From TrEMBL:
One of its GO terms (molecular function) is DNA binding. InterPro entries: Integrase-like_cat_sf. It comes from Macrosiphum euphorbiae. GO terms for biological process: DNA integration; DNA recombination. This is Tyr recombinase domain-containing protein. It comes from the Eukaryota.
Length: 385
């Protein structure tokens, strides 16, 4: 933005020198250039740039105003800056923001939403598990090499992200104390008796601890027995791999004070190596969206959905608004049932029925696809349509 401003006004170089009321139109022109505005079509190549730069300029105004007050600048200089800020707040939405928001909305109309393939997720899980166990066995045999440590550490990091659908940044910054200081008290008998047999067994086998999530919110992490065993192997041999005592993180890089392996890089590397058909979709954000979206296919109670949202680190309202089945899926598969029922004149027969129960009324259940095609052909012959 600053480079574009400098090209439009030769001789002015610093951003604070541009924060004057008579340069407002220059800012508008620069923002349009920055975001690739097309005057003829009234569209942007990158409308989000136009929106973000507006917020950034206002932040710069606040910073400059604070510095000016601290440095004891004259009231005239302060008033000039405040006048620019007032003009910017009043006029920017008409000059840039409203058009950019409309353009972003239009571009989202027919944008497809791709989610990870279930087969690819299974491939990734099996690959990570095999590599992790192979490396763990080598370490237990006394083979303390940097290559082995790196392989096990990166596979364990990716596996925790995959199992828990956690943000990669949250997992890579798990501290040793987060794990060691976990609550290890046994569950009360009354609570165990209220669980199903499967739930009770899972409660005994899984390990749970809480880490720092987005905005400082505490979010849980679950470990299967094999993940716990592998993690314990790494923690018990940290010094053998050159992990400094000053490094507090579980997935520490050897001989660094605070360095950790990046979850995004580890997951990308594993996704490419596991033989997935679409490795680009095997990213932490996509995996999080996958579980939150596909959970709608389950008949979850409000309490269950709230538990899932809390586990994902979401507010329930945000979870319902942003993590849902794509509209095209719902409209093609479900809303179309209602439309066809109305068109057929049989809507009165479906009173009190759920959408799942519509199927047996919508089409004959005993006909195969080929038989249905033949029936349609016969109907066309009789009606002449």
């Amino acid at each position: 933005m600053l480079l574009i401003l400098q090209s439009l006004v030769p001789g002015v170089y610093k951003l604070n020198e541009f924060l004057l009321p008579h340069y407002f139109k220059i800012f508008v022109e620069a923002a349009k250039k920055l975001s690739g505005y097309d005057e003829d079509k009234n569209t942007y190549i990158n409308p989000s740039n136009a929106l973000k730069i507006g917020h950034s300029i206002l932040q710069c105004c606040d910073i400059l105003e604070s510095q000016s007050i601290i440095e004891g600048k004259s009231e005239e200089e302060l008033q000039t800056l405040r006048n620019f800020k007032k003009i910017f707040q009043m006029e920017w939405k008409y000059a840039i923001s409203s058009n950019a928001i409309q353009d972003m909305s239009k571009k989202k109309f027919n944008k497809s939403i791709k989610l990870p393939n279930a087969d690819d997720i299974q491939l990734l899980h099996n690959y990570l598990l095999d590599e992790m166990i192979k490396g763990k066995n080598l370490i237990e045999k006394g083979l303390y090499t940097q290559v082995t440590y790196k392989m096990v550490c990166q596979c364990l990091l990716s596996q925790i992200i995959l199992l828990n659908r956690r943000r990669s940044g949250e997992v890579e910054r798990i501290k040793v104390n987060d794990y060691l200081n976990r609550d290890q008290n046994k569950m009360q008998n009354e609570i165990i008796k209220s669980l199903t047999e499967v739930e009770a067994r899972l409660s005994k086998n899984f390990v749970r601890f809480v880490i720092r999530g987005k905005k400082g919110r505490g979010v849980p992490v679950l470990l299967t027995p094999v993940l716990k065993e592998t993690l314990d192997v790494l923690l018990n041999r940290r010094s053998s791999f050159g992990i400094l005592e000053s490094n507090p993180y579980i997935f520490a890089i050897p001989y660094t004070v605070e360095g950790t392996y990046r979850g995004t890089d580890c997951l990308r590397k594993s996704a490419d190596a596991c033989g997935a058909s679409d490795p680009e979709q095997l990213r932490s954000t996509k995996l999080r969206k996958h579980i939150a979206t596909m959970s709608q296919l389950l008949n979850l109670s409000n309490s269950d959905r709230e538990q899932l949202a809390n586990f994902m680190g979401h507010d329930l309202a945000i979870h319902n608004e942003y993590y849902r089945l794509p509209d095209e899926t719902l409209q093609i598969s479900r809303v179309s049932k209602i439309l066809l029922a109305m068109e057929s004149g049989k809507l009165h027969e479906l009173k009190g029925k759920s959408l799942e129960e519509f199927d047996q009324y919508m089409m004959p259940v005993n006909l195969s696809d080929s038989e249905l095609d033949e029936a349609e052909l016969d109907e066309e012959t009789v009606t002449g349509i």
